[in-house]
Design a protein that fits this description.
By secondary structure, this protein is of the alpha/beta class. The chain is about 40% helix and about 20% strand. It has 4 helices and 7 strands, in the order βββαβαβαββα. The strands form 2 sheets. It has a 5-stranded parallel sheet with strand order 4-3-5-6-7, with helices on both faces. Strands 1-2 form a two-stranded antiparallel ribbon. Strand 3, helix 1 and strand 4 form a beta-alpha-beta unit. Helix 2 runs parallel beside helix 3. It is globular, with a radius of gyration of 13 Å. The N terminus is likely disordered.
Length: about 130
């Protein structure tokens, strides 16, 4: 599935996805899948770096890895909600449902499910980035 292009000031851009995770093996693979699908991936490994990016530039969605601490995950979801940015939490066991994120996805379902869920989330919640 290919991400659609964003039109901004007459220029075509890829939808920017802020990918937040501490995993050293899995998150680079996930980011490669997202990039191959046409998304502009901004990978970060810390809560602080993610917040800094959110304050400095527009992103179309957050993908939050299961390696993030619950407190950080809740804060990121809350910050995304304030800014009108959809957020997806990767959650293998369904334990992370106490936050305000729009979508929880089991990363064990594979890359196709991740891409389908992200595209659906962008269409539903952030039309400006998925025109």
């Amino acid at each position: 599935m290919l991400a659609k292009k964003v039109v901004s000031d007459g220029l075509h851009m890829r939808p920017a996805i802020l990918s937040i995770a501490r995993e050293r093996l899995v998150s680079p693979l996930r980011n490669a899948v997202l990039a191959h699908a046409g998304y502009g991936v901004i990978p970060v490994t810390t809560f602080e770096a993610a917040v800094k990016i959110l304050k400095r530039r527009h992103v179309c969605a957050l993908v939050i890895g299961q390696s993030m601490e619950p407190r950080e995950r809740r804060a990121l979801c809350s910050e995304a909600q304030k800014r009108g940015i959809p957020a997806m939490v990767l959650d293998s066991y369904g334990h992370l449902r106490e936050d305000t994120c729009e979508l929880h996805v089991n990363p064990l379902d594979g890359p196709e499910m991740l891409l389908d869920a992200l595209a659906s989330l962008l269409k539903r919640c952030h039309v400006a980035c998925f025109a």
